[in-house]
Task: inverse folding
């Protein structure tokens, strides 16, 4: 509860001549304006008041993720103090903690926070976005793409569970026997338990046939249902869903040939890369230069692209391992090692087998037997 005199104090700030000039400038969209002479706390208060007065979304650019983490709680507190209805409309879009092609996966918490933030932006649910400089410089997809990352389930509506479960798998959820942590789901007959990111409790969705009969929160410790709700918002855990379509698009980019199915994509990549390297080597042995052979063959998988695809597959394997799908992860890891092995023998590579060694070392740490089913 906010005391009346506190709200009156903030209302007095909105009557200051300087504030009125800035608010009018923003409402008219008259270009840039510079505001100075404020402490950090005063800046946060003025930003919230100006956003409320202007009636439009703001983007606040800060130096790094730490600055964003420190500022968002302050902005949300002021938002509540001035009578704002939805403090969650103030969100942070963190920058990734790894760079592309760094052979590392981003931290799961950062992936989750970015995915939820991008969904909120795409659906118009953001009043103030706090974003580090590096995050604002990244190229993004269309708003329709991010708006499709979440799913809404409502009581009384028809629900086809198979497409929903496929979607949950692509946006980072893991199937378990008992739901205890965010990002998990379990299905038992006509009951679907799911724990959405940012939710205070997991939800139990009970079906009668194809109709959603009830949605209830439940305690992850005791598994007992409690409060009934009318709808369940299932937010994503990643902004880049891993699907057969995505792997197919990667294959199109690399080879210009479209084929269906994730395994077919990888197998075709291995076949094309192996054949290309073999034919280049034969031409070199018969006196043709590698550059001439490359020009004649139009090599479909140059070294840098092979490294990229192998890294994507190995990161996918690790994600499966984290999601307790060890057998599937080991399968994709072996495919990644096979591509890395082809990379080591590619005529235009200076890898020298480094990527193979890195993958094999990681697989040994995770307890995956490399020689089981594949001998490099």
Result:
């Amino acid at each position: 509860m906010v005391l009346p005199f506190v709200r009156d104090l903030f209302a007095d700030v909105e009557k200051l001549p300087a504030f009125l000039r800035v608010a009018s400038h923003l409402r008219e969209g008259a270009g840039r304006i510079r505001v100075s002479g404020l402490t950090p706390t005063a800046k946060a208060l003025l930003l919230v008041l100006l956003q409320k007065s202007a009636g439009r979304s703001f983007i606040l650019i800060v130096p790094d993720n730490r600055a964003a983490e420190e500022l968002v709680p302050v902005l949300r507190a002021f938002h509540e103090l001035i009578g704002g209805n939805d403090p969650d409309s103030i969100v942070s879009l963190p920058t990734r903690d790894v760079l592309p092609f760094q052979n590392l996966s981003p931290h799961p918490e950062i992936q989750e926070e970015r995915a939820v933030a991008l969904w909120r932006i795409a659906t118009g649910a953001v009043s103030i976005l706090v974003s580090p400089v590096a995050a604002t410089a990244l190229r993004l997809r269309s708003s329709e793409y991010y708006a499709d990352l979440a799913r809404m389930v409502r009581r009384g509506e028809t629900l086809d569970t198979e497409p929903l479960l496929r979607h949950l798998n692509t946006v980072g959820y893991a199937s378990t026997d008992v739901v205890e942590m965010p990002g998990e789901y379990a299905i038992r007959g006509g009951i679907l338990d799911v724990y959405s990111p940012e939710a205070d409790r997991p939800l139990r969705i009970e079906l009668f046939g194809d109709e959603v009969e009830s949605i209830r929160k439940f305690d992850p410790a005791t598994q007992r249902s409690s409060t009934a709700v009318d709808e369940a918002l299932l937010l994503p855990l990643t902004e880049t869903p891993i699907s057969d379509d995505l792997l197919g698009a990667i294959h199109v980019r690399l080879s210009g040939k479209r084929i269906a199915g994730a395994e077919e994509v990888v197998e075709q990549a291995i076949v094309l890369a192996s054949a290309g390297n073999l034919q280049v080597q034969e031409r070199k042995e018969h006196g043709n230069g590698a550059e001439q052979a490359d020009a004649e063959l139009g090599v479909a998988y140059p070294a840098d692209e092979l490294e990229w695809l192998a890294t994507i597959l190995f990161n996918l394997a690790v994600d499966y391992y984290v999601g307790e799908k060890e057998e599937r992860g080991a399968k994709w890891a072996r495919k990644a090692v096979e591509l890395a092995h082809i990379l080591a023998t590619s005529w235009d590579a200076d890898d020298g087998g480094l990527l193979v060694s890195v993958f094999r070392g990681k697989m040994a740490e995770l307890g995956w037997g490399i020689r089981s089913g594949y001998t490099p």
Remarks:
- The first helix runs from residue 4 to 13.
